[in-house]
Amino acid sequence: MVQNIEQHAINTVRVLAADVVRGANSGHPGAPMGCAPMAHVLFGKEMTFNPKNPAFINRDRFVLSNGHGCALQYIYLHLLGYDVSLEDLKLFRQVGSKTPGHPELHDTPGIEVTTGPLGQGISNAVGLAAAEAQLAATYNRPGFELFNNYTYTILGDGCLQEGVAAEAVSLAGHWKLGKLIALYDDNAITIDGDTAVSFTEDVLKRFESYGWHTVYVADGDSDIASIEAAIAEAKAVTDKPTLIKVKTTIGYGSLLQGEEKVHGAPLTVDDIKQVKEKFGFNPDEKYVVPKEVYEFYGARAAAGAAAETEWNALLEKYVQQFPTEGADLKRRLAGQLPEGWEAALPRFTPADAAVATRKLSEGVLTALADKVPEMLGGSADLTGSNLTRWKQAVDFQHPSTGLGDYTGRYFRYGVREHAMFAVMNGLAAYGVNIIPYGGTFLNFLTYGWGAARLSALSHLRVIYVMTHDSIGLGEDGPTHQPIETLALTRATPNMLTFRPADGNETSGVYLAALTTDRPSIVALSRQNLPQLEGSTVEAVLKGAYVLQDAADAKVALVATGSEVSLAVEAAKLLAGQGIGARVVSMPCSELFDEQPSEYRKSVLPANLPAIAIEALGTFGWEKYSHAQIGMTSFGASGPAPKLYAKFGITAEATAAKAQAVIAHYAKVGYVPELGVEF
């Protein structure tokens, strides 16, 4: 029997990490070897989870923010009995394996969020911790602590240097998220070498100023007792998140320990052999896990399975004692939306007044607030412009502030777009059917694009309420007017881009966004738009549809958002000149692309010239049109009507271009077919 099973287990992880990275001939062995002791304390002694059911809802969450060290997490998932085999470890970083180069949600059982871009993981962890606080305040009752899990994260120097992390940890301190515990792997190394070249601040003082509790562990290489004590201290502080600074040696045990050379490349074969000899392993054996190490971690997994059994029994008692809350919670745990929620969506006729789609969005959110309680809203300091807060909303705040409480469903993110998006990813990843949405100006979507891209990669149902969606915002000028933004979102896989034209389409956008497993970008106008003849809520689900038609149409006018009404006006001008025009509204090109070919060709038939109209960049519209009206430069400052005139985005210009396009194709004798598939 090994004398010190815990040290033996830690060393097993270290040599296994060296083998895993060497086997792939790619990866980062240094962080796993240095972080093994703190990970051992977390996975082997502190955290509650059930490897046989990774989705156990009251499990403690773990996020590896420095995701390049993912060999560490994969090894622990294997040792604990998750569906990650030794063979999976041997396939590290290989195509189609469960062990990709950075942790990815949905690829590996036990991974909570997709990490890799530094700073995102700690920011997601803030969202996971906020979700626990909100759910606990909403559902817990005396004697029924259904939600009381902790959120743990390991992060490194790189994460702390990224701006998104600074934004997110500031929010965590303000929200007083006492069940968020971050372990800082202080190894003083980044890819460029010693952090002395670029990162010399006092991290603990910075976090203290953010409102965090801080602890320092001087020897993270071997003093597991101090790591345990630090976590116990963190748990005792209930009104502050905690940062535990753990001094470690990157690549501990390697001949290159403490150097940047061990950060991003496998150890040599000879180095691995000496590591194994140093830690008491056979240098000629690979991928070895002693039986007693499996048994040690297996005991922790068994305790987690027992904890889930107890939780399930507690839930059933809760349902009996609190039937209304219990039924609502069970519905959410099943991933179901409330029955009949769609009936609350507002509907409009052409007799209704012209309204900006951002205002129409506010009406939808207000109508759904009581019908879909899993919707959690917010804004990056633009609540009054984004119109994202319903009147009866309670703000998510620590009760001590007097500004709200943890039952609140409206999040004041401050001027922190990037953190808002990353926190929303964490909220969505928690489970319990949470549907987060957050607002800012469309142009500032790219401030937080790193997180938005991860929403798509992770298949997270996050709703981006992006107002002031074109040059139509007017006087703020080109710094605020989005031109290229929707070309980016439409080019991004697994992301839906919506630009509704009126009230029915705005309701339809939320119908689609709440029933998908993808993020939705909702681009909304500042200016008032008329309610259109022919628009419907359900039509949005097809992405594009014929809004108005002419019996002998010679041209199709394809538009989105505020330009659909402009296309209607252009069609009237053309009709007055004896030219029939079809008006196609395309609120979501991605959904349109997913429709059967027959439907798409019925909307945009072969040999019918098409003109796209959108007061943003024209890039990408050649897929749906033969000519485009839109922006090929940045905007300008001035009233919206004058800007539309300046840049030629008018009904008159559209009618003139339609005449020119019709004449051109009549002269050449044919119209090129759109969307030819090979």
Assigned CATH superfamily of the largest domain = Thiamin diphosphate (ThDP)-binding fold, Pyr/PP domains
Over all CA atoms, what is the radius of gyration? 28 Å
Unreliable segments of 5+ consecutive residues = none
Provide a count of the helices. Answer: 23
Number of domains: 3
Largest sheet: 6 strands, parallel
Give the N-to-C terminal Cα separation. Answer: 65 Å
Secondary structure: helix percent: 40-55%
Identify the CATH class of the largest domain.
Alpha Beta
Mean pLDDT: 97
- The beta-strand count equals 20
Strand content: 5-15%
- Shape label: elongated
Biggest sheet, spatial arrangement of strands: 10-9-11-12-14-13
List keywords for this structure.
678 residues, alpha/beta, Rossmann fold, six-stranded parallel β-sheet, five-stranded parallel β-sheet, 23 helices, 14% strand, elongated
